[in-house]
């Protein structure tokens, strides 16, 4: 039994050699995973700030309206050129998305 407030050190097993052996047997483009794993779902979870997969995610962000009111999300008036740059960037993202390009 451990003294109150003191945690025991975790019991880790070094699997470096196992991983190196497995990696050496892979061909370029191959991936070790189980049948239920889908890379796209993992990326979606990260994009959605899933607390299980994003260690930096602590809480839901404040609503946009409250951030505008308290000044933490300042609004800027865009010039016509700025509006075109935003529209151009959105179009680029829209075109890239169907082919999953980055």
Q: What's the arrangement of secondary structure elements?
A:
Elements: H1 16-25, H2 39-47, H3 64-70, H4 80-96
Describe it for me?
It contains four helices and no strands. The chain starts with 15 loop residues before the first helix and ends in a 6-residue tail after the last helix. It is mostly helical and 102 residues long. It has a domain at 61-102. The mean pLDDT is 78.
Regions with pLDDT < 50 over 5+ consecutive residues? Answer: none
Biggest pleated sheet: none
Distance between the termini: 53 Å
Oligomer: single chain
Order of helices and strands: HHHH
Q: What helical percentage do the residues reach?
A: 40-55%
The rounded Rg comes to 23 Å
Mean pLDDT comes to 78
Please state the overall shape, judged from the principal axes of the Cα atoms: flat
Number of helices: 4
Tell me how many strands there are.
0
| Helix/strand/pairing category | mainly alpha
Strand percent estimate: under 5%
